């Protein structure tokens, strides 16, 4: 109660809430709770509210018997009024004045860089422990922010979307409805929203957008709708969400976008009634779904439309006539005149497009990405026939014998008859009515002869094939003869795909499978080929023609099971997490028994990847595929729950995971399809089932049970769970990457594991911050999860400079930009203008934990090639500061000289990155070289010439600036410099008495007492020294080291302990803030 009381005071006293001075409160007798009914800025306004209450509320109160009923009525009435008001407020939400005011508050209170785009804002409470704080929640492109100022106490919270690992709606005793955000192990709760569902959906979209953009580049590249972070708006996000839901429900091509939605009634001729629902119109389709989506739905491609007419009756009807003498009548359509005009224009454009476009070229994306693949004659792959099969393999290898009809064949014919009756009522083809009866027939199993046609229809692949005529034949022609990693893996797995089936014991089936898989790998090189695709494609080829099987594979990989078939199988991991969540909800007793829920993930992975084909006999698995193409992933989740439920008693008695796996495998062995017309030599489970004494389970009964028990699971719930668990899965993968990187790096540095962990977070954060506000970020282009852990995140010179300024103990130096540049060039050993975390941490470790010799050696190496390059800013007013363009230019200097050499070496010594051939020997050789790598001998370091030594001296002076022992250090370095020059002069006189060293001596020594603010710069030659001078004047590292060791002030300076932990804590709080200054 104390927390709620403080929350009330908070909302009253919060200056941002602007609470009105006049209020009307409702109190139930004998209760200390007051409900705020109305408020006003002055007496006149509150009097109007009171008059309205007298007229509309108080007269009704006399009918209630108890005070509690009166309170409930008043509460419900006021909430209803708020909801009605909310409907109007949505339309006015983009009020420019209100939004501008909120934007100014956001910029002033949160203090993010001006590029950060505010999407929307909400009033809510943020819970600090048991106390709620009233304030404003700001949702921007890259951050979730909260700000509250109460009684002089300020609360400011900034969470980047890419750090969110959990986002969910929760409900507790104290918080009836709240939004829970988990970021970097910390939990945050927000409540008291007026529209919590809307707020949650927007947060979910922004979090998933950030995750895709920064972590999941493969998915993001395929989704260009939101590629510009500066163009994201609330309206755009809502529109996108509706469009995605529309495409998923109707299984439309990914290029489609929702344009219009109209509420109307569709006349259903075979039922003689009109069903209420929504007409959804996209670029190329008119779709309808009843209010209850399972009741009736229709998809009308504009390419099939012959005419669009309207009636003169008061029903405001639109009649759409399509090929095949079928017409659809939509009644009670608002603005039907304008709608008819628009549809006629769309149909005219669609028919023109069909007439003109007879060929469809392969997408530029596919050809562009395939262009770099190594293409050469494929000696291991000999095509027996380049002709694309025009018949399903089942038709070729198992033609139906109509003369000999046994009981199973009679049942099959009865199924066909049922479908023919449905076709006569609902139509046949892409525009057929889809009703509850359609689903019932699918659950019973689709007849063998109709399976390919209906798979194409329900998956939406029929639309892909119709809009891309000739595409498959062209891809097959271009892909044959190529050789790369994908084709080698395909060749290896060809004869492992349903090897017991006669179709894949012959060259006909093997060649068709090869063509489809190779063509798809060519079409989509980002996926290429993944295991399990061969098993799925084999089944598709049994029932569909070769070109149809290709488009079915496209539908599965790119729409129905997104992100399943890539290196990280993120989609499958997400759906397994969804499956675990459903198990907790529907089978709690199993959850209580299993100590580790990851068991279900490990055992069910093959269920999801192969749609149960790998665990069920083929004659039973095809029934599961039937349901999958009709209901999507919902069918697989339901069946998984039904299987666990059926085996619940056995699983509860299992003592370990191995026993549970054995029980499930025994169950799968005894699943039969008693109505399958396939010959016994094809049915995989026939021989086992005859000998087995275990109870047989018919697949049809199992699927029916899964629909009856778990059919209440909604598509919307699955989508929400997928979004929620995607955050968790990707963050878990990122955590695994981090732990592997830390394990490797920790062996080579003196930092503690905690310091290294926090340094990694800062390193990665800087990469992301530099990508927040730009359309195409170089850092993201180099992010490839298929690379080794160390190479997945790399920073360029500009990002390194920012981190150097924040972290380096030498960042106070006047020439810090030059030091950052030289350090980067030193670390960039392979000259690709990028460094990884191992290289970055090695430099920071030396700066903080290195010995006197190690620190001095680092400084020495920074002032000799390849690290050192003469730096001169084009803008004299900036002094030693370098612009981004200058920094990137200097970081790339001399790279071209070694490019050919480096490339040749990398071809021999390092494995190829990406998806090309992987040279295992190169990996082993590289690993062995690293193990045998010894500490660098200081005698091997090259000598430092005159101009480099002058710059080295200047750097030391800059490092000592504002140090407590500044004067002593300046004097010490002057003594060392003078000593080195005199030693060199003596040595030079022994060889050439005529040259003069005094000029150089006075140049360097005179710069000493003045320090970095003196005129040393004016005496340094701007151009490069002549080769002769460089040869004459040079110093070895041992000379410099020995001279510096003689000065105690210099030794104390470099051996002074530095607190890296405190520096990291400071950087964590200032890293984002510093971005506003850079």
UniProtKB/TrEMBL annotation:
A Pfam family it matches: GRAM
Gene3D superfamilies named in the record: EF-hand, Pleckstrin-homology domain (PH domain)/Phosphotyrosine-binding domain (PTB), putative rabgap domain of human tbc1 domain family member 14 like domains, Ypt/Rab-GAP domain of gyp1p, domain 1, Ypt/Rab-GAP domain of gyp1p, domain 3
A single BP term in Gene Ontology: glomerular filtration
Keywords linked to the UniProt accession: Cytoplasm, GTPase activation, Repeat
Ranges of residues in domain EF-hand: 815-850
PROSITE patterns listed in its UniProt record: EF_HAND_2, TBC_RABGAP
Lineage: superkingdom: Eukaryota
Compositionally skewed regions (Polar residues) per UniProt: 992-1005
Gene Ontology MF terms: calcium ion binding; GTPase activator activity
GO cellular component: cytosol
Complex and partners: Interacts (via domain Rab-GAP TBC) with RAB11B (in GTP-bound form).
Function as written in the Swiss-Prot or TrEMBL entry: Involved in vesicular recycling, probably as a RAB11B GTPase-activating protein.
Protein name, entry field: TBC1 domain family member 8B
Top-level taxonomy: Eukaryota, Metazoa, Chordata, Craniata, Vertebrata
């Amino acid at each position: 109660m104390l927390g709620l009381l403080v929350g009330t005071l908070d909302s009253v006293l919060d200056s941002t809430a602007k609470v009105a001075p006049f209020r009307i409160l409702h109190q139930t007798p004998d209760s200390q709770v007051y409900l705020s009914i109305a408020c006003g800025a002055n007496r006149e306004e509150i009097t109007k509210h009171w008059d309205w209450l007298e007229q509309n509320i108080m007269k009704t109160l006399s009918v209630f018997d108890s005070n509690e009923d009166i309170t409930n009525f008043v509460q419900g009435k006021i909430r209803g009024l708020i909801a009605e008001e909310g409907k109007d407020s949505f339309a006015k939400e983009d009020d420019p004045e209100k939004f501008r005011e909120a934007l100014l508050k956001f910029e002033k209170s949160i203090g993010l860089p001006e590029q950060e785009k505010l999407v929307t804002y909400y009033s809510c409470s943020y819970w600090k422990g048991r106390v709620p704080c009233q304030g404003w929640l700001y949702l921007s492109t890259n951050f979730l922010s909260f700000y509250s100022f109460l009684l002089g106490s300020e609360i400011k919270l900034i969470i980047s979307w890419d750090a969110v690992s959990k986002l969910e709606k929760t409900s507790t005793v104290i918080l009836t409805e709240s939004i829970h955000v988990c970021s970097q192990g910390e939990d945050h709760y927000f409540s008291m929203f007026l529209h919590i569902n809307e707020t949650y959906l927007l947060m979910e979209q922004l979090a998933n957008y950030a995750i895709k953009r920064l972590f999941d580049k493969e998915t993001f590249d395929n989704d260009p709708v939101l590629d510009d972070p500066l163009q994201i708006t609330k309206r755009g996000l809502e529109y996108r969400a509706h469009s995605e839901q529309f495409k998923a429900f109707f299984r439309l091509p990914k290029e489609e976008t929702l344009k219009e939605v109209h509420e109307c009634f569709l006349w259903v001729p075979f039922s003689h009634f009109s069903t209420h629902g929504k007409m959804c119109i996209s670029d190329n389709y008119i779709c309808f779904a009843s209010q209850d989506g399972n009741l009736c739905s229709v998809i009308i491609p504009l390419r099939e439309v012959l005419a669009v007419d309207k009636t003169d009756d008061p029903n405001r009807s639109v009649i759409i006539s399509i090929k095949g003498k079928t017409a659809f009548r939509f009644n009670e359509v608002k603005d039907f005149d304008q709608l008819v005009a628009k549809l006629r224009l769309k149909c005219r454009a669609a028919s023109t497009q069909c007439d003109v476009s007879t060929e469809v070229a392969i997408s530029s994306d596919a050809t562009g990405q395939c262009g770099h693949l190594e293409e050469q004659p494929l000696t291991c792959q000999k095509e027996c026939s380049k002709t694309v099969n025009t018949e399903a393999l089942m038709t070729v290898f198992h033609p139906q014998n109509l003369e000999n009809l046994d009981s199973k064949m009679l049942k099959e014919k009865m199924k066909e008859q049922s479908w023919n009756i449905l076709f006569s009522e609902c139509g046949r083809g892409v525009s057929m009515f889809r009703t509850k009866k359609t689903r019932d027939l699918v659950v019973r199993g689709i007849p063998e002869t109709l399976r390919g046609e209906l798979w194409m229809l329900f998956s939406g692949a029929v639309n892909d094939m119709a809009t891309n005529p000739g595409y498959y034949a062209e891809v097959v022609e271009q892909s044959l003869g190529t050789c790369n990693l994908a084709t080698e893996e395909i060749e290896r797995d060809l004869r492992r795909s349903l090897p017991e089936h006669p179709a894949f014991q012959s060259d006909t089936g093997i060649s068709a499978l090869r063509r489809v898989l190779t063509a798809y790998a060519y079409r989509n090189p980002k996926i290429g080929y993944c295991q399990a695709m061969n098993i799925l494609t084999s089944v598709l080829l049994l029932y569909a023609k070769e070109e149809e099987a290709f488009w079915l594979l496209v539908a599965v990989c790119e729409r129905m099971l997104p992100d399943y078939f890539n290196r990280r199988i993120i989609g499958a991991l997400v759906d397994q997490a969804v499956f675990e969540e459903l198990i907790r909800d529907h089978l709690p007793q199993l959850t209580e028994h299993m100590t580790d829920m990851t068991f279900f993930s490990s055992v069910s992975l093959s269920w999801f990847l192969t749609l149960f084909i790998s665990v069920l006999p083929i004659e039973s698995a095809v029934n599961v595929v039937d349901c999958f193409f009709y209901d999507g992933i919902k069918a697989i989740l339901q069946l998984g729950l039904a299987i666990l439920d059926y085996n619940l008693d056995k699983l509860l008695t299992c003592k370990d995971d191995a026993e549970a796996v054995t029980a499930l495998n025994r169950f799968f062995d005894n699943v039969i399809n008693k109505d399958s017309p396939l010959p016994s030599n094809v049915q995989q489970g026939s021989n086992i089932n005859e000998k087995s004494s275990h109870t047989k389970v018919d697949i049809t009964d199992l699927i029916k049970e899964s629909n009856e028990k778990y059919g209440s699971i909604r598509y919307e719930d699955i989508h929400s769970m997928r979004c929620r668990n995607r955050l968790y899965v990707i963050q878990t993968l990122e955590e695994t990457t981090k732990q592997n990187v830390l394990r490797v790096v920790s062996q080579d540095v003196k930092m503690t594991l905690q310091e290294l962990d926090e340094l990694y977070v800062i390193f990665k954060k800087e990469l992301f911050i530099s990508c927040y506000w730009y359309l195409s970020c170089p850092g993201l282009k180099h992010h490839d999860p298929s690379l080794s852990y160390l190479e997945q995140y790399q920073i360029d010179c500009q990002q390194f400079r920012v981190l150097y300024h924040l972290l380096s103990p030498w960042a106070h130096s006047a020439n810090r930009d030059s030091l950052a540049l030289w350090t980067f060039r030193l670390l960039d050993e392979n000259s690709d203008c990028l460094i990884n975390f191992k290289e970055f941490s090695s430099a920071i470790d030396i700066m903080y934990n290195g010995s006197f010799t190690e620190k001095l050696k680092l400084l020495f190496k920074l002032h000799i090639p390849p690290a050192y390059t003469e730096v001169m800013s084009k803008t004299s007013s900036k002094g030693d500061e370098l612009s981004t363009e200058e920094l990137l230019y200097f970081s790339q200097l001399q790279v071209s000289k070694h490019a050919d050499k480096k490339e040749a070496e990398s071809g021999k010594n390092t494995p190829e990155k990406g998806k090309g051939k992987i040279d295992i020997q190169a990996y082993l050789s590289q690993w062995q070289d690293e193990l045998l790598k010894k500490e660098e001998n200081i005698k091997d370091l090259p000598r430092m010439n005159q101009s480099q030594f002058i710059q080295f001296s200047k750097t030391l002076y800059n490092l000592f600036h504002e140090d407590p022992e500044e004067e002593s250090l300046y004097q010490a370095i002057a003594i060392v410099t003078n000593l080195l020059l005199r030693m060199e002069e003596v040595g030079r006189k022994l060889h050439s008495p005529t040259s003069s060293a005094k000029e150089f001596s006075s140049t360097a020594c005179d710069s000493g007492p003045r320090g970095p603010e003196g005129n040393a710069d004016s005496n340094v030659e701007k151009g490069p020294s002549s080769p002769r001078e460089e040869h004459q004047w040079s110093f070895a590292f041992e000379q410099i080291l020995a001279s510096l060791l003689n000065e105690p002030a210099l030794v104390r300076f470099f051996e002074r302990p530095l607190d890296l932990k405190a520096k990291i804590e400071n950087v964590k709080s200032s890293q984002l803030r510093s971005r506003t200054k850079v």
